[in-house]
Amino acid sequence: PASGAHWDKVDEDPHDGDTTIISTPLNLLTYRDTFTHTPSNIPAGSTINQIEVFAVCRKSAGVISIAALQVVIRSGGSNSQSPAKNVNSDNSWPTNSHPWTTDPATGASWTIAGVDNVQIGVNKAGVNAAINCTQIYMVVTYEPAPGRVPPCDSYGDIDGDGLVTQTTDATWVLEYVVGLRTLSPDQLIRA
User: Fold this and answer.
1) What are phi and psi of 106, to 5 degrees?
2) How far is CA 37 from the centre of its chain?
3) Omega before residue 146 within 30° of 0, cis
4) Cα–Cα distances in Å, from 51 out to 8, 73, 97, 138, 145?
5) What pLDDT, on a 0 to 100 scale, did the predictor assign at position 110?
6) Is-contact 139 54, C-beta < 8 A?
């Protein structure tokens, strides 16, 4: 960008086209830009199946050459990139993506900490053409940890822990009745 940070040019949802972009330099054969992201809210104990990084990019207008990019992640100081993908359009915003089922820093399945600390971005892939990117984001596919199935379709389970207990659930109902506790609408249904 002409000014300011790079991350704030690619974080809009939905993307804003040419309003905010990052551009790779025309005269460099390779160029990488990676960004941190907001930590996930993945529940503890979940199994992470994959992360997939998406980049909404196009070649710069008026550039005759075919542009190529790689979607890239940076984990634990190691870079891992997708195969090069041609970006031929200079009048639309195609989306390129690549999935990773393992953390390249460890070679093992993703952990929540690994997902929260990975950087995401793009890499200009050795072609002498400029690329503009307007949005880069990550989607995490995971399976929540198996939980307890509450009895009676959650009725009585005020705190949502899968159990109906006297020490918490019954106490919360009693405190609500005497005006010492406020319950959410969902908790009131279960009470």
Assistant:
1) -115, -20
2) 7
3) no
4) 21, 10, 10, 7, 17
5) 97
6) yes
Rounded CA gap, 100 and 50, in Å? 6
Secondary structure of residue 93 in the 3-state scheme: coil
Q: pTM for the full model? A: 0.72
Residue among 151, 133, 50, 144 nearest 96 (CA): 133
Cα 56 to Cα 20, 77, 110, 144, 174, distances in angstroms: 12, 24, 24, 29, 54
Decide if 134 contacts 104 (C-beta within 8 A): no
Q: In this predicted model, what pLDDT tens digit does every residue of 109-142 receive, in sequence order?
A: 999 999 999 999 998 876 667 888 999 999 999 9
What phi, psi does 166 have (nearest 5°)?
A: -75, -35
Buried b (16+ CB within 10 A) or exposed e, 138-155: bebebeeeeeeebeeebe
The Cα–Cα gap between 53 and 37 comes to: 12
**Which pair of structure tokens corresponds to residue 73?**
């992640």
d(CA 90, CA 98): 21
Virtual CA dihedral for 67, 68, 71, 75, nearest 10 degrees? -110
